[in-house]
From TrEMBL:
GO terms for cellular component: extracellular region. Gene3D superfamilies: 2.70.50.70. Has a modular structure: an endo-beta-1,4-glucanase catalytic module at the N-terminus, a linker rich in serines and threonines, and a C-terminal carbohydrate-binding module (CBM). Lytic polysaccharide monooxygenase (LMPO) that depolymerizes crystalline and amorphous polysaccharides via the oxidation of scissile alpha- or beta-(1-4)-glycosidic bonds, yielding C1 and/or C4 oxidation products. Catalysis by LPMOs requires the reduction of the active-site copper from Cu(II) to Cu(I) by a reducing agent and H(2)O(2) or O(2) as a cosubstrate. It is found in: Secreted. It catalyses: [(1->4)-beta-D-glucosyl]n+m + reduced acceptor + O2 = 4-dehydro-beta-D-glucosyl-[(1->4)-beta-D-glucosyl]n-1 + [(1->4)-beta-D-glucosyl]m + acceptor + H2O. The lineage of its organism: Eukaryota, Fungi, Fungi incertae sedis, Zoopagomycota, Kickxellomycotina. This is AA9 family lytic polysaccharide monooxygenase.
Amino acid sequence: MIKKATRIMLAMVVAAATAGMVEGHTFVTSVTIDGKELAENKCIRPLWKEDNSPQLDPNGKDMLCRTKNMDPSATEVCDVTAGSKITILWTESGKGSRAIAPGHNGPCLAYMSPIATNGEGPVWFKIFEDGYDAAKDKWCTEKVMAAKGYMDITIPADIKPGQYLLRPELISLHEADRVFGKDKTAGAQYYPGCVQLNVKGTGTAVPQGWSIPGIYKPTDPGLHFNLWDGHKTYDIPGPKLYVSGSAPSNPGPATTNSTTGNNNNNNNNNNTSSPSGKNCSGKNAKRRRRIIINNNNNKRDEM
Ligand SMILES: [Cu+2]
């Protein structure tokens, strides 16, 4: 039998472990490399406030990694081979918890940049994107939920070896029928994270990069989108996907290149306020709950 004091202590430990983790949201919890799942948080930059809430301002500096600070020494760098698969685990509050709340639907993306840049400047290239499958009526986030939070990404085979940040991202569109701006609770909800990788291989490619923040505008069609009014098509936001083998080789070091960002780049980066969605209390919260219930009744997804 557990003594009362022990029970209270156990309860406190559980409460501390999940402090700030609001049900529904998500963060990068672990990575699997070469089929081996690493410990939670290994090679992942710490989350901003031990709080899994989304980034709401696409021009806020926290769009980079949703981290407390951009300290590269905050975690290790893990080896990965160019061309191989890395699997991201998304959870609400740690392994064993849900990936994200049902109804948080939207695209999945991933970007990379050389670690030496610490993510600054036009250095991010997109290596993965998955939006909406109209034939199956499935969002990428729904696939991630069905896969218990696991999401596969392939590291481009031809990129120059060296240390990189990998920035996987889920975007939820459940409040995106209204544009982020005056209303700081409106708009797409961004769930980025940053993994530190040492890419091994023999590639020479240095793909063209873009700035984060700067890749998304609140009015982009893939970010100002009504999830609830029926849809057949979806435009995945951000720059075009980098396909291995499509970049000219570059003899320079795997750092930044001098290419300026695309015309999505936006000079509004001096907005340092980064309101975060403390909960899912926006206008669509009720509607979303209704849809989740309907989904459960229809048993469309085992979530
Ligand atoms: Cu949420």
